[in-house]
Amino acid sequence: MTQFRYQAVELNGSTVSGVIEAADRKIALQLLGAKGLYPSDIVEQSSTTASRSGGGASATVTTSPSRFRIGPKVRRKEITAVTRELATLLQATIPIPQALDSLAEEEENPALKELIRGLSESVRLGASLSAALAEHPRQFGRLYVSMVRVGEEAGALDKVLLDLAALLEHEDEVRGEVAAAIAYPCFVLAFGVLTVVVLLTVVLPKLFSMLQEMLDTLPLPTRVLLGTSEFIQGYWWLMLLLMAGAGYGLFIYLKTPEGARNRDQFKLKLPVMGGVFYSSALSRFARTLGTLLKAGVSLLPALKIVEDTIGNLVLASVVARVAEETRGGDSLAGPLRKLGVFPRTVTQMINVGEETGRLDDMLLQVAHIEERRMRAQTKTLISLLAPALILVVGAIVGFMVIAILLPIFKMSQAIR
After folding, report:
1. Is 15 strand, coil or helix?
2. Do 8 and 119 fall within a single domain?
3. How far apart are CA 389 and CA 383, in angstroms?
């Protein structure tokens, strides 16, 4: 048996040091993990006797706030990739600081490299990984930190990180599909607006000046188009100011609690689009809650986390009411059925999950069903939106063509 001297972090954040006997380094790490200790340093006794002294002493370390404040340069997909890589390294029984150092060395993004090194430094100073992550709320939200904390308390951090990585990857996939679906309609709209603006401000004014010299009276469509062109040319600065002012006012209003709630309420009531937003929020509710319960988070704290991460204030208030009912001893399905916000099939599936003791699996199944529904609704929306935008742009361009051709026809008739 070989003796290994170690420094480790307990669940309460305190650091301990001591000596453990094991056949090799891997077994020593496993033995420490079974005791609820997370090693930050472990070396053979023979290589440290001369330089280290004392064993079994413990000291509480107060973690200082991280000096790293990373902005939006760290992308969500990079956080997802780091999560899965960290889970893989921890499965190989590599201590957390060494795993973080390894990730930092391979990272190409300077901002993310600095962030990971900051996490490693905090853990080495005695902080738990969840506490270190909590110092960076912009990159690691409440859901992320809570799941990591549960993994630390349960001694299954690697498994929880794998579940968390799967959740983040799935959300990234859904967002990517929605972004790809709306890319074509947005391109059509932007190209149409650009075309109309160029025609009204560059091409048509020169043509209209020629037509006015050749005809005494222009047709009504031509006069309307001419007036629009002159107004844009003369008051474009006023239009920009009004649009900027309206946009800023709307931005400030949506920052208020009333404005944010009215926005979310409006999104749910939109035709076709409302169903997409609703299914998206419902799937996020079910998948997040299912993942948290699977990781070992109790129901009430999990509902509170879902309330903060569901992404819709109207449905978040429903989740808060469900949490209140559940705190009174009711089941999850009971309050959901009473409020009548979620579909009956969803509440029935949740009820079955509670009765069979498989609520987490049933919630993940609900999330899968709602995501399929959201994808189908999104495809329907895009199939309707793209032709509608093409028709609108075509109608505007068609009106402009008619307004240009009418005076030309009038001149040809005069020549005859």
Report:
1. strand
2. no
3. 11
Q: What is the CATH number of the domain that holds 125?
A: 1.20.81.30
C-alpha span between 307 and 276 (Å, rounded): 19
How far from chain centre, in Å, is Cα 355?
A: 32
DSSP annotation of 67 = S
Single-letter residue type at 205: P
Note whether 184 and 154 are same-domain residues.
Answer: no
| Residue 146 belongs to some domain of the structure | yes
> In angstroms, rounded to a whole number, what is the distance separating the alpha carbons of residues 18 and 53?
10
Show the CA angle centred on residue 78, arms to residues 382 and 11, nearest 5°.
125
Q: How far is the C-alpha of 27 from the C-alpha of 389, rounded, in Å?
A: 64
Tracing tokens 């300077």 back to the chain, one arrives at: 110
Is residue 34 located within the same domain as residue 134? no
Is residue 29 within 8 Å of 39, Cβ to Cβ? yes
DSSP single-letter state for residue 200: I
Instruction: List strands edge to edge, sheet with 38-44.
Output: 38-44, 2-9, 15-22, 58-59
pTM reported for the whole predicted model: 0.63
159 shares a domain with 85:
yes
State pLDDT tens for residues 200-210: 888 788 777 77
Of the chain, the percentage scoring pLDDT greater than 70 comes to: 87
329 within 8 A of 249, measured Cβ to Cβ: no
The Cα–Cα gap between 344 and 333 comes to 10
Say whether both 154 and 172 belong to one domain: no
Number of domains in the chain: 3
- Of 121, 106, 114, 101, nearest to 73 by C-alpha is 114
First-to-last CA distance in the chain? 113
Count Cα neighbours of 92 within 13 Å in the Cβ-side half-sphere. 9
CB 291 within 8 A of CB 163: yes
Residues 263-291: tens digit of each pLDDT = 989 988 888 778 888 888 888 888 888 88
Q: How far apart are CA 252 and CA 180, in angstroms?
A: 29
Residue 166 is classified by DSSP as: H
Indicate whether 293 and 352 sit together in one domain: yes
Do 112 and 99 lie in one domain? The reply is: yes
- 145 plus 192 within the same structural domain: no
CB within 8 Å of 265: residues ≥ 6 apart: 314
Rounded distance, CA 155 to CA 87, Å?
13
- Which of 166, 199, 229 represents a domain boundary (last residue)? 166
| Total residue count of the chain as it appears in this document | 416
User: Could you tell me the residue range of the domain that residue 35 belongs to?
Assistant: 2-59
